Amino acid sequence: MRLLFACIAGSLLAGPVLAQSTQFTTIGTVVRLDPQLDKLIAPGTAIELIGSGFGHLEGPVWARDSSYLLVNDTKAQITYSWSPTKGTAKFLEHTGYTGRLPYSEEPGTNGMSIDPQGRLVMAEHGDRRIARMPLVGHGGKETLSDRYQNKRYNSPNDVIVHPDGSIYFTDPTYGLPRKDSDPAREQPVKGVYRLPVGGNGAATLLIRDLTYPNGLALAMDGKTLFVSQSDSTKPVIMAYPVLAGGALGKGRVYFDMSKLPRLRYKEVPDGLKADQAGNLWASGPGGLLIIAPAGAGQPGKLIGLLDTGEVIANCAWGDNGSTLYITSGTYLCRIKTSTKGRIQGKP
Q1: What is this structure's pTM?
Q2: What does the alpha-carbon distance between residue 332 and residue 330 come to, in Å, rounded to a whole number?
Q3: What are phi and psi of 246, to 5 degrees?
C-alpha cells in the first residue's frame, strides 16, 4: 500500500506517474460470481495498477507493431503511450480539439482504433470528427468525416475498425459544452455511423433510436456489433448482426444492467470488448462486467466483475492478446487472462 500512496502523492506534484518497473502494486478485487470465470481469469490473479495521476482516461488501444498501449486523457487533451519497459510518455498533445479553450469538460480525443494499414483512427470530441494519422513515420492527422448530410456531428465518442477496414463510430453529445442543449448542436439524433472500407467516403447512419450510444465492440468473427447505451434509465448493451456490405440487422438487448447496484456515481455502460470465446468485458455498475454468452438469441450471463474502486471507462486487449488493459478514472490498470481478444491493426 505504501507504493500506491507514493504513486498517488507523486502524481499530484508531477502529473501521471512514469512507471519504470515491471513490479506493480495491485488494486481492487476480482469478483467471482460463477465458476466459469476461473477459465478466463486464473484464481489468485490480481488487477495491477500500472499508472496513476491522470485526469480521465479513455480509448485504450494496443499498437501491435510498436508493442505499446495508447490511452487518452480527455480532460488534459493528451494521448499517452505506455510500455512495460518505458512506462508512460506523452504521445500527442493538444489532441481532440484545435479551437480556443475553455470548450467543455472533456474536449480531447476519446475512443481510438487501428486500421489494417496500422494507422490510428480517433474519435475527437472537441473537433467533432473522426480523424486518422500514421503511427510511424511522418504525417499529421486527416479528417475522415466531420458531418452527416452536411450537419456536424455532436461529439464522436467511440470508434472501431472492422477487419474489412470499414469504420463504425458512436456520436452522443457528451463532448459538447452543454451536451443535449448546446446551441452549436446540429445533428437531431445521437447515432451510430459507418464509414466505408478505407474510411474514405460518406458516412451511413445505421442506428438512430438509442438515447446515448457509447461503447462499441465487435465479435471476434466480425459478425456482431455490440453497442452500449450509457443511459442510467435504460442501461443496456445491444447486439446487432453485421450484414453483407456492412449494414446492421435488427438489434436486441444482449444484457440489461438496470437491476445491478450502482456502487459509484456515473457507473453506466461505457466501453467494452469481446474475447475469442464470445465473452464480453464491459464497463458498467460495479466495475468491468464479464458477460458470458448463453446461447443463440439469449441474453448474456454475468459471471464476474473487475472492481478497481473507481468508475471504469473502457478496456483493450494488449501484448499477445491475453492481457486486458483497463482505463479507470485516474488509473491505468491491467490483468492477465486465460482467454484472448483481437488486437487491431496489421494482421
Answers
A1: 0.92
A2: 7
A3: 95, -5
